[in-house]
Amino acid sequence: MHTHTPFTNLAFCVRTFGCQMNKHDSERIAGMLEGLGALPVESIEEADIVVFMTCCVREAADTRLYGQVASLKNTPLRAGTPLSKRVVAVGGCIGQRDGERLVEELPHLDVVFGTHNLGSLPRLLEAALEEGGHHVEVLDAASSFPTELPTAREHAWAAWLPITVGCNNFCSYCIVPYVRGREKSRPLEDIVAEAEGYVAAGVKEITLLGQNVNSYGRDLYGSPRFAAVLDALDATGIERLRFATSHPKDLTDEVIGKFATLRSLMPALHLPVQSGSDAVLAAMNRRYTRGHYLELVRKLREALPGIALSTDIIVGFPGETAKDFEDTYRLVDEVGYHQVFTFIYSKREGTPAASVDDPTPRDVIQGRFDRLVDLVQQRAFEANQADLGAVVDVLVEGASKRDAGLLAGRSPKNQTVHAPLPDGVSAGELAGTVVPVRIDEAKTWYLSGTLADDGAAGHAGAADGR
Ligand code: 5AD
Ligand code: SF4
Q1: Atom 18, ligand 1: which residue's CA is nearest?
Q2: Ligand 1 atom with least separation from CA of 348
Q3: What does the pLDDT read at residue 420?
Q4: Closest residue by Cα to residue 259 from 209, 296, 313
Q5: Closest Cα partner for 233 from 205, 275, 272?
Q6: Which ligand is nearest to the CA of 311?
């Protein structure tokens, strides 16, 4: 950095709650602040500027944010800081939803921004640094797709690439369309240009992001063109391609077919079902049936027999009966997911479902939830047994958190894989490379094995690993 900016030599820290879109937005914030000369630090205590990227999709993140911001008031400044007061900013979904209300409740908060004006953050922070006072800016909609912001990626070998922002689906429980706005697609050329830049920089894995990637392009081109995005990304030469999230009503046969034909597309799909009951699905405004969903699962497995499926489920949606829940339970049993994210319904003010009263006692809902979690774990354990004895290609992320002598990485099916590091090789040296691992233990949440000695074995593994 040659030019001096108000950010030169200030330390910043970004705390992220919620989904991958938020994590990606945080990388863009880090990219902007680093570009202005600020230095990233790990801890809030060490930071002069703290940015919270927030989520209001579920209650837990909401409560945690207010607690964390409040506790900052009593956190001493770091030694040697040029500031007399730490600068605190809140952005993302809660910033968008609560705006001015946030600074009323948390008076030591300096900056609030929303989901549509990430790019304004440096200007708002600069005003707070120079003038003090509150700086709140929340827009109703984005003027354009926020394509041009730099990113500071968490891992050099993996990148998130947003292709749409916002959502038009208005599922009756969901706050996202209100805080992220209507769906906006990014032009295909922009997406491809960003992906080509990543490939040239040595990125191994790209994850395409959108609230509903399957409807990509409807606003720009009149009809969805997600399959074309997948083709174009594959053609960039990227090693691993993933995407999230898919709405079952928009997942086409053409896209399903890509799992069989595209070299880079990893054999894993997150396909949120939310409920296995037709009555609940209708009340949720999901616009598909249990039968349609199961048909999609059948087609996916026909296209790619080993595909690993994951899903989201809400337990205790208003009006969910014991029979509705049994339908969900049976669906989870039938599909045999590799992973299920289970949530207890929580009311989001302003959504249609928030005005529906439900007499079902909390402990009944908790009982359903606990039963479902047991089943999810049992089925995940069973799904992982399919890989026993296989050699799978693992993209190494680093050392295992529990044992520094083990490498940790991801299989094509997105399972966590552990294996002992070879003598004299550090996890850091292997991070970002793909190594073949022979699986000799399959647990509920991870696989473990040993490095397979030659590259040829890795190749055979890649073929049957798919
Ligand atoms: N209550 C509980 N879970 C919710 N989700 C979204 N809104 C709510 C809510 N109000 C879950 C859905 C979605 C995931 C990201 O969060 O399962 O797929
Ligand atoms: Fe929310 Fe439904 Fe849109 Fe997903 S598809 S973000 S659940 S409204």
Answers
A1: 312
A2: 10
A3: 97
A4: 296
A5: 205
A6: 1
- Show Cβ contacts of residue 399 under 8 Å, excluding neighbours closer than 6 positions: 405, 406, 407, 408, 421, 426, 427, 428
Closest CA to 466 of 228, 312, 240, 203: 240
Q: Which of 58, 173, 176, 280 to mutate to test the pocket of ligand 2 (most atoms within 8 A of CB)?
A: 176
pLDDT of residue 146: 67
Residue identifier of the C-alpha nearest atom 13 of ligand 1: 312
Helix 253-261 with 290-303: angle, nearest 10 deg: 30
Instruction: Reply yes or no on whether the pLDDT at 2 is more than 90.
Output: no
Cβ of 325 closer than 6 Å to ligand 1, yes or no, is no
What is the pLDDT of the chain when averaged over all its residues?
A: 93
Q: Give the pLDDT band of residue 271 (cuts 50, 70, 90).
A: very high
For ligand 1, say whether the CB of 343 is within 6 Å of any of its atoms: yes
Phi, psi of 246 (to 5 degrees): -110, 130
- Answer whether 211 contacts ligand 2 (Cβ < 6 A): yes
Q: Residue 53: which of 16, 97, 24 has the closest Cα? A: 16
Site of tokens 């509150």? 134
463 pLDDT more than 60: no
Write the pLDDT tens digit of every residue in 33-73. 999 999 999 999 999 999 999 998 987 778 888 889 988 98
